């Protein structure tokens, strides 16, 4: 009978996968051998595996076909803007987070990712031709580095899923069906094509969180290894130190996994520990956990302290306070030593603990992360996560979960980490969707494979993430970087012609412009000036600045097209002798700051109500573009 069933087993991959899904409610059931055979049938020619490789290649290719989409100013101003300004001596905008007295941002990862590329550019072109460096190289170089680094998160998901969905100790397959599904969902997410290819500290935090989960879970004996990996305390200490300095919010993500490791990790078999604890009294169990916490904490103390000292030294050197620090050490002055040490995580916590400071960035209700940011970031995965939580809460009393299996405590750890992290971030009043980016690791591992339960759900996932990739990669504030690239070419032409005519660049009603992409040498700031009116009121602030510009100056203004009428009216009223010329227009460019003006341009009732396709496209360009205007000499 068994032979007969095997002879009728479907060879079609999709049918085999559907049968696999219906049989894998319990990962450690008696059908483990059958599941293993089905997994081994899925070789490298599996269409899903080929799709995964294609998605990985696309992640790298989209870097070189530059995404002008501008997600959030921190992708530049916490990463490449200060590094490029210092390394190339370009005019840059150093935001308040990098002030010398209380800097909030650690510079290790920005330097690690940006400096190798910048050094390669500088050594290739030489100092004399450095002014001719293309903004394209400055844009895609660091993005390529972080895109390469993002594959660490894919590797972590693979290792976690290999343990989560292993059918048993006899499984020799490197890639199970569920593991492949989770990797495919992760690689097809719009987060992988946008946040993973933009220089965000949140992307670094996601990578470190994945490494933390993988290191902790693999430190316990499992079906693939009966002994913990070596130097586990050093690995954890380094991850915690670098994660804390990269973003102190890493404490929220790492709290549950680290507490579990401190309380439960021992060199002997994890299964024996669980059995021993189940037979002991509550007092003995708690005392055993306390002893473990003390012993494991001491193991982490020395390497964590050394890594922390290194990172403090990096920030102290970056802010040019090392000489003062050495002088204070030689004088044995505690007050001077503490004054010259740059403790970026402490400054970060001191600033963000005050609600008045957070009010400058926007305050949100407690539920905003849960009801807005989670669906915004993870779409269908967030919905599945919420449905599963509700199901577990309602049915836990009636459904007895299997115990003493490796997958159960791993699932509980991933569940608890994601829930506690969401609650922890919701407790602070300032919410941004990108703060939750690291949660993609546990959520994909837990629920990524469920998206393939129904074909329609998978189609919705892929289509929605494709649209979000297009929006955030090529539409949202896309004209900012595109217009800067155009202006940079104007600047290079002016410097190559050695003209003494000065140029003034103005940016209004847009995200903060990353000025390092203009490649203006600091020694020529008198000839090439920049006015940042990005978040100021228009046109009043523009008029005020325009009056102060000296004569014999070429003035360029980067402005959303929906404000063109306001600009023309302002010039006719206040500067009747000034003419303007549209020299560049980038479409599409979406900005939420002036949606009312975009709406008025798109639905102008003063014009014809019936529009042809050409007229409709012209309306769209007028409502959602970024214009660069050139004014006659002032």
UniProtKB/TrEMBL annotation:
Q: Name one GO molecular function term.
A: alpha-1,2-mannosyltransferase activity
- Designated name of the protein: Mannosyltransferase
The membrane topology term of the UniProt record is:
Multi-pass membrane protein
Classification lineage? Eukaryota, Metazoa, Ecdysozoa, Arthropoda, Chelicerata
- Indicate the principal place this protein occupies in or around the cell: endoplasmic reticulum
Transmembrane stretches in the record are: 49-71, 136-158, 204-224, 236-262, 300-318, 366-386, 406-423, 435-452, 458-475
Q: Which UniProt keywords apply?
A: Endoplasmic reticulum, Glycosyltransferase, GPI-anchor biosynthesis, Membrane, Transferase, Transmembrane, Transmembrane helix
Q: List where in the cell it is found.
A: Endoplasmic reticulum membrane
What EC number(s) would the UniProt record show?
2.4.1.-
């Amino acid at each position: 009978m068994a032979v007969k069933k095997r002879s009728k087993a479907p060879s079609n991959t999709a049918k085999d996968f559907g049968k696999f899904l219906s049989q894998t409610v319990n990962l450690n059931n008696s059908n483990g051998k059958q599941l293993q055979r089905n997994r081994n049938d899925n070789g490298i020619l599996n269409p899903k595996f080929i799709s995964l490789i294609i998605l990985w290649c696309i992640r790298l290719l989209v870097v070189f076909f530059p995404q002008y989409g501008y997600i959030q100013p921190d992708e530049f101003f916490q990463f490449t803007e200060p590094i490029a300004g210092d390394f190339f001596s370009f005019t840059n905008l150093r935001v308040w987070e990098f002030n010398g007295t209380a800097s909030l941002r650690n510079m290790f990862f920005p330097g690690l990712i940006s400096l190798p590329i910048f050094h390669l550019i500088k050594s290739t072109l030489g100092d004399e031709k450095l002014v001719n460096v293309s903004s394209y190289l400055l844009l895609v170089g660091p993005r390529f580095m972080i895109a390469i680094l993002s594959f660490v998160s894919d590797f972590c998901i693979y290792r976690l899923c290999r343990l989560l969905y292993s059918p048993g100790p006899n499984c020799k397959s490197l890639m199970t069906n569920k593991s492949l599904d989770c990797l495919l969902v992760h690689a097809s997410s719009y987060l992988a094509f946008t946040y993973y290819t933009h220089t965000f500290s949140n992307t670094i935090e996601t990578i470190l969180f994945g490494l933390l989960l993988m290191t902790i879970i693999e430190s316990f004996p499992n079906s693939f290894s009966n002994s913990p990996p070596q130097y586990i305390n050093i690995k954890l200490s380094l991850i915690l130190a670098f994660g804390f300095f990269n973003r102190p919010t890493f404490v929220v993500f790492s709290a549950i996994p680290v507490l579990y490791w401190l309380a439960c990790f021992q060199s002997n078999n994890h299964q024996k520990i669980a059995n021993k604890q189940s037979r002991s009294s509550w007092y003995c169990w708690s005392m055993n956990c306390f002893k473990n916490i003390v012993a494991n904490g001491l193991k982490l103390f020395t390497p964590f302290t050394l890594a922390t000292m290194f990172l403090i030294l990096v920030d102290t050197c970056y802010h040019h306070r090392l000489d003062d620090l050495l002088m204070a050490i030689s004088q044995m002055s505690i007050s001077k030593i503490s004054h010259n040490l740059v403790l970026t995580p402490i400054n970060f916590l001191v600033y963000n603990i005050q609600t008045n400071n957070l009010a400058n960035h926007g305050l949100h209700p407690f539920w905003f992360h849960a009801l807005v940011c989670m669906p915004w970031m993870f779409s269908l995965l967030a919905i599945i996560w919420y449905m599963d939580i509700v199901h577990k809460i309602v049915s836990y009393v009636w459904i007895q979960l299997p115990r003493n299996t490796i997958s159960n405590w791993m699932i509980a750890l991933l569940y608890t980490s994601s829930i506690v992290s969401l609650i922890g971030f919701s407790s602070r009043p300032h919410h941004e969707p990108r703060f939750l980016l690291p949660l993609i690791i546990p959520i994909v591992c837990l629920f990524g494979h469920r998206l393939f339960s129904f074909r329609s759900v998978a189609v919705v996932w892929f289509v929605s993430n494709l649209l979000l990739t297009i929006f955030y990669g090529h539409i949202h504030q896309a004209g900012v970087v595109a217009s800067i690239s155009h202006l940079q070419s104007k600047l290079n032409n002016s410097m190559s012609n050695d003209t003494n005519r000065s140029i003034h660049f103005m940016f209004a009603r847009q995200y903060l412009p990353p000025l390092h992409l203009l490649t203006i040498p600091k020694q020529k700031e008198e000839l090439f000036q920049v006015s940042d009116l990005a978040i100021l009121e228009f046109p009043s602030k523009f008029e005020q600045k325009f009056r102060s510009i000296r004569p014999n100056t070429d003035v360029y203004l980067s402005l959303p097209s929906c404000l063109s009428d306001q600009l023309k009216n302002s010039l006719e009223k206040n500067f009747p002798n000034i003419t303007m010329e549209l020299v560049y227009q980038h479409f599409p460019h979406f900005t939420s700051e002036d949606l009312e003006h975009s709406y008025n341009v798109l639905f102008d009732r003063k014009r014809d109500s019936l529009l042809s396709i050409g007229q409709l496209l012209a309306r769209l360009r007028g409502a959602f573009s970024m214009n660069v205007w050139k004014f006659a000499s002032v």
